[in-house]
Amino acid sequence: MSGPPLPPITVLVLAGGAARRMGGSKADLRIGARTLLEHALALAAGVSRHTLLLPGQRPLTPPDGVPVVADWGAGDNGPLGALAAGLAAAPTEWVLLLPCDMPFMSVAVVEVLRCRAAVTDRRVVAFRTRGGLEPFAGLYHQALTPAVLSLLESGRRSLKGLLDGQDVETIDANELLPLDPGLRFLHNVNTPGDLEAARAEE
Question: Where do the domains of the chain lie, and which CATH numbers do they carry?
Answer without folding.
Answer: 9-201 (3.90.550.10)
